[in-house]
Amino acid sequence: MARMTAPRRRLVLASASPARLSLLRQAGFAPEVIVSGVDEDALSAPDPAALALLLAEAKAATVAALPEAAGALVVGCDSVLDLDGEALGKPADAEEATTRWKSMRGRAGILRTGHCVIDTATGRRVSETASTTVRFGSPSDDEIAAYVASGEPLHVAGSFTLDGRSAPFVDSVDGSHGNVIGLSLPLLRRLLAEHGVAITDLWV
User: Fold this and answer.
1) Which of 78, 84, 141, 201 is catalytic?
2) What digits encode the pLDDT tens for the residues 26-82?
3) By CB distance 3.0 to 4.6 Å, which of 57, 106, 191, 196 could disulfide with 117?
């Protein structure tokens, strides 16, 4: 008699980030995407790590409450760059992106990404913030101008990413590489385990 196996749990990503979706797909998952629509500018917290976690929890909770997320595991994430205790999200415009890069070059910041996983079948929520130190190189003014003109820094937290044009301007990272892109897979594995879900059971 064939052994019956439980159906694979649905995994829902509460984020519009193509980088997070790509990370999950490359790691063997086939997540559904439901964008939360949370107004990030409306929320505040006492420090960058707390803000990243608050935003991640708000995104996950908003999506988990939707009928279409019933029975799913909902993952919410949000990233900010902690530079001297200031939380830097996506820059408002090209001028701000340019100013940021000129202040970041040759220095180190901490990329904080809040992670929240809600099991909508039980209502249980677990969350944590992952932190990765990023050491920036020293791009010239011309290189910064060309990078900002590409438009990329306007769409990413801290005005940079490791999976795009700014990668040559980052000298090193200390911690989870994926966390800087937008999602720490090791942390996701631990959070799913707290729900009693093995990450391998979600592979497709």
Assistant:
1) 78
2) 999 999 999 999 998 899 999 999 999 999 999 999 999 999 999 999 999 999 999
3) 191
Q: Write out the two tokens for 61.
A: 């909770």
Closest residue by Cα to residue 139 from 110, 91, 97, 90? 97
Task: Say whether 119 is catalytic.
Answer: no
Token representation of residue 107 = 């220095």
Determine if residue 6 is left, alpha or beta; phi over 0 gives left, psi from -120 to 50 gives alpha, anything else beta: beta
Assess whether pLDDT exceeds 70 at residue 193: yes
pTM of the entire predicted model: 0.94
Q: Which residues contact 20 (CB under 8 A, 6 or more apart)?
A: 13, 77, 181, 182, 183
Residue 65, token pair as written in the block: 């409450």
